[in-house]
Amino acid sequence: MCCAYGGGFSPPYTDLLLRLRFYSEVVSWRFTAESALSLSRPLSLSLSVSLSLSIPPHLLSSLYPGLRIVELSAELTQTASSPCLGIRVTTASNFYTTWRSECASSLSFLLHQVARVGGQEDGGREGCSPGFQVKRYQLAFTGSFQKGQALIQVEFDDCAGNEDVQFEVSDPSFFVDGDLNLVPRQDVLRSQPVLSIHGLSAHADDTAQVEVTGLPAQSPHTLRGVLGVGQTLPFRSKRALLIPPMIVTENQRAPFPRKIGKSHVISTERLGSHIFRLTGPGADQDPKGLFTIDIDTGEVSVSRSLDREAIDSYQLEVSTTDFAGNLVEGPALLLITVIDQNDNRPIFKEQSYTGEVLEGSPTGTTVMTMTALDADDPGTDNAALRYNIVRQSPDKPSPNMFYIDAERGDIVTVISNKLLDREFEARVFEGSTGVVVNLTVDDRDDPDTGAWRAIYSIIKGDPTLSFKIQTNPDNNEGMLSVSKPLDYEAKAPHTLLIKVENEDALVPDVGYGPSSTATVHIAVLDVNEGPVFFPDPLIVSRMENIPIGSFVASLNATDPDILQIQSIRYAVLRDPAGWLSVSPVTGTVNTSGSLDRESPYVHDNKYTAVFIATDNGSPPATGTGTLVIHLEDYNDNAPYVVPSIARVCEDAHDMNVAIVGGRDKDLAPNAAPFKIELGKQLGLDKTWKVTRVNSTHSQVMLLQPLKMANYQLPLLITDSGVPPLSNNTEIKVQVCVCKKNKMHCSSGPSHRASLLVLLATPLLVLLCL
């Protein structure tokens, strides 16, 4: 072995240092024993201890780029002839593996293997692999885990942004937060040795394991116990795999993974000398990831809910390998059976069945046979079906005219043949429409011919044409339906006489007529109808800005159920601006806020609110009504001038500055025509002039040239309302230098036009002197 160890063996030895040399670089491990042992002569030792690694960074970075080792444990056996070393390495990505050197092997081989695995784990990837980027983690237990403490951060990437990823931890005392940290929900004093974390999103479904180290356990208390002095080395014996069949119930709920069984190695060798592997459909083949196996203990877990109706059993293979990947035992067959749950309801083969029976048929006559299927396990009671009749319509002349065999599904008649006639009775709720009853006929002619096809008609009992009857082309039945909603308060029962005949005329000289009739009784059932507003909508006109509490309108709603004595209460259903209130008893609507015609809730001068009326029936019924308020304008908005900025060239021959117009949120006659004039400041009329163009616009002119600058020109605009409203406003006039069709304007502050006039007058006087 290309290395050496050093250190004196003089008692007592409370601190032992082993040095392994590799290409003149030093790799050091250190451990501390709890008691001393005197050694006076060469002796075969067995050393098994957790060690800390100290390797110069430039050594591995130059030899094996990408390798980052965070933990190393070793087993060293020192004999008189040569040393043997076994190393268990955990890289920064929490992948771990173990190598054992033969006594003649070199440490360089071991480090090469470590570097190769480390580089594979931490190297670049050509594409994203959805799931946990690191499958195994280690977490040190220090006596307790405190609530809310971030313990470790897992690496999970579903390759789609990790949106809506959900994590479940096998121990409910922990959870994974939004930063992918494993966090205790509460103070944890005792922990399981292994925690499983299941990550699930629309793009990934994966499981990782966290090994909790440092949990309380009994250990030797002397250096003799640590070194194993006086013990015999284990010998290798024949191994065998014991793989019992396993079962798992379908539709299990979270948390996952769930343990379902354990594989065993029958061997006298020490534990940890082999790795369990699970292969086959459901493990490393589609559907992948359903089952996992703990590589150390052989415990098999299911990672998510199963569906027996999709796959009822899985045949997998379990094998063990050494830490170099060489097969040790197996593969052995593992059969996992999915136990059925009653999660499938029976389904009839047809959505509708049609049976026929002649009127007057004797009791026990078979009408039809119903057939249903169940997807559950046919060998269990979950798929054992029993039939029963849920409802018969109509229920006259007897509510139990038929019986169904609970096991076979045969429907037979159970009433007297005298009660089995064609007079039917149907029930329909008032206000509803649609088919209420299907009438059947018996015709022995060839189907789908004119001699077989039936034509139905209502010949009596429908003066308001509230019913219609049509032939079903598939089965020749007559479909009697309500075409106009019926009113219970107007007429409760209806008796119709239906006639049926063939498309083709009956041949002559037969012993019966060409048509047949049947009587159908229609019972109209009362329904608690909602109150009805009248008129709907209710339209009123009101002036805007009327005082709060002013009367607006009176709502009127009546109950159509005139045969019942019911009261009605009113309420506001939709009032966008919150301007209205209503008396719950009288329906009187008053203002609770100021009505504003210029509000964004008003459209085309109309404000719309919706009210609801509720009766005290069982159950209560409601109706809605609309109130539209046409708002009349009030002169409450002063006019204003547009545009607010005008430009003119300082050397322009045309002294017209701009045409300005008036605007007003009010309506006529509270708006135009507008009066636009100069402000009341002294001296403005010496430099500026405003001339009316029309009822809404005026012309602003300069009476004398001005130098390049910005000027604020005061204007007064007045509308035509009664009383009129005025507004003192200003426009900004920019006097610019104009060259080659370009205007160069000042970016400085504006000058008051009135101040300029006052300053200019004394200056002209001085110049004249």
Can you tell me about this structure?
This is Cadherin-13. It is found in: Cell membrane; Cytoplasm. Keywords: Calcium, Cell adhesion, Cell membrane, Cleavage on pair of basic residues, Cytoplasm, Glycoprotein, GPI-anchor, Lipoprotein, Membrane, Metal-binding, Repeat, Signal. By secondary structure, the chain is mainly beta. The chain contains 4 helices and 55 strands. Strands 47, 49, 52, 53, 54 and 55 form a 6-stranded mixed β-sheet that branches. The longest helix has 16 residues, at 107-122.
Structure, briefly:
With 769 residues, this protein is mainly beta. β21 and β22 form a beta hairpin. The chain is flat.
Features:
mainly beta, 4 helices, disordered C terminus, four-stranded antiparallel sheet, Cadherin-like_sf, six-stranded mixed sheet, disordered N terminus, flat, 769 residues
Basic shape? flat
Write down the overall mean pLDDT: 76
Determine the strand fraction and express it as a percent band: 35-45%
The radius of gyration over CA amounts to: 49 Å
Count of DSSP-assigned helices: 4
Helix content: under 10%
How many distinct beta strands? 55
Structural class call reads mainly beta
Low-confidence segments, ≥5 residues, pLDDT <50? 1-126, 218-239, 755-769
Tell me about the largest β-sheet. Answer: 6 strands, mixed
Distance between the termini: 120 Å
